[in-house]
Amino acid sequence: MIKLPGLIDPHVHFREPGASHKEDWDTGTSAALAGGFTMVLAMPNTKPPIFDAETLDIALNTAKGKARCDYGQYVGAGPDNADKVAALADKAAALKMYLDMTFGQLRLDDMTLWIPHFEKYPKEYPIVAHSESRSMAAAILFAAIHDRPVHIAHISSKEEVLLIKAAKEKGIKVTCEVCPHHLFLTSPSPIFEENGGGPGRGRMEVRPRLATQKDVDALWENLDVIDCFATDHAPHTLEEKDSDNPPPGFPGLETALPLLLTAVDAGPFGAAQGRRLTLDDLIQKMNINPKKIFHLPDQPETWIEVDETAAYEIKASEQFTRCGWTPFEGWKVKGRVRKVILRGKTAFEDGKILVEPGYGVNIRK
Ligand SMILES: [Zn+2]
């Protein structure tokens, strides 16, 4: 049995308010605990989006009543709310800016709309950017011009990781995260192919899209550039994923740690290619770095216990997420979360959630 600090996921979507048939604060935080996460930061692209004092109150009140692990809530950057969200900074996890197409309505196409947010949002918190490829380069330029921290969400490509590496070498305040699905899946993927463009096509929809093997290799080769592992837990029901208009997103909270522990054990592509990830890296990227980047509080008497020898197959039927599927169905992994202790209390043990809704606390006071 190995003991790890409580994991922190800086990027989850809990779909409440607005789409709790996909997930809500109760099922989402249950999935978090089952996956070894004791703290999650929730994204603002709900319905309504969280982008002013009223909507932030809606989200925080819901979380207060239902969350089983600790949490923070992002506010979203809109075309004309820079003053409003800056005033809420001490209550929010951080500011999220959508600079590329994704799920929901928050999107800032015109770079002049970015300026007030970069000028006004307090510099002690990062601006988290969904920005791919060249818009990521623009976001990094904004970080340099405004001399403030920017955290790039879910990087997925070789060009992105190499540009971030170069920007860091120049001293620009940029950090980044990568999601397990961008480390373990490619497009085209075997699952995608097996389904012949049928149900598999919708199930593989995610933003950023799954990349090529060359991109995946570049991420693994540059793990030292990557500050955090984030799940981008983005649940949609199987019915929605298999529909004619499949929404992008994967659940990820319950598969991240076993996938990454398997890579620690044998390397991402089997022992032949060597190990590229250590347990220390994992602790760094899933606890120490997110805590530092987002100025998150300590969680006293909090840890997780993992049976690193437990080998098993991932099964959606055993998960707590409401969405009912996983892109990693049937994957053979090694490493199972046995116990989660959160602020002195056993919150999860051997497949059972042991704390009530409302046990989780807001990490911003
Ligand atoms: Zn996301």
Task: Report what the structure shows.
The protein has 365 residues and is an alpha/beta fold. The protein is built from 13 helices and 14 strands. The protein has helices at residues 25-34, 53-66, 82-87, 115-120, 133-146, 158-169, 180-184, 190-194, 199-203, 213-221, 238-241, 256-266, 279-293, and strands spanning 2-5, 7-12, 37-42, 70-73, 75-76, 95-98, 127-130, 150-152, 174-178, 228-229, 303-313, 332-342, 345-349, 352-353. The strands form three sheets. A six-stranded parallel β-sheet has the order 5-6-7-8-9-10. Helix 1 (25-34) links the parallel strand 2 (7-12) and strand 3. Helix 5 (133-146) runs parallel beside helix 6 (158-169) and helix 6 packs parallel to helix 10 (213-221). The radius of gyration is 19 Å and the shape is globular. The mean pLDDT is 93. It binds zinc ion. Residues 11, 13, 43, 232, 234 line the site of zinc ion (ZN).
The oligomeric state is single chain
Query: How many DSSP helices?
Result: 13
Q: Element order, helices and strands?
A: EEHEHEEHEHEHEHEHHHHEHHHEEEE
Helical coverage, percent range: 25-40%
Which small molecules are bound?
zinc ion
Radius of gyration, rounded?
19 Å
Shape type: globular
How many beta strands in the DSSP annotation?
A: 14
Instruction: Specify the structural class.
Output: alpha/beta
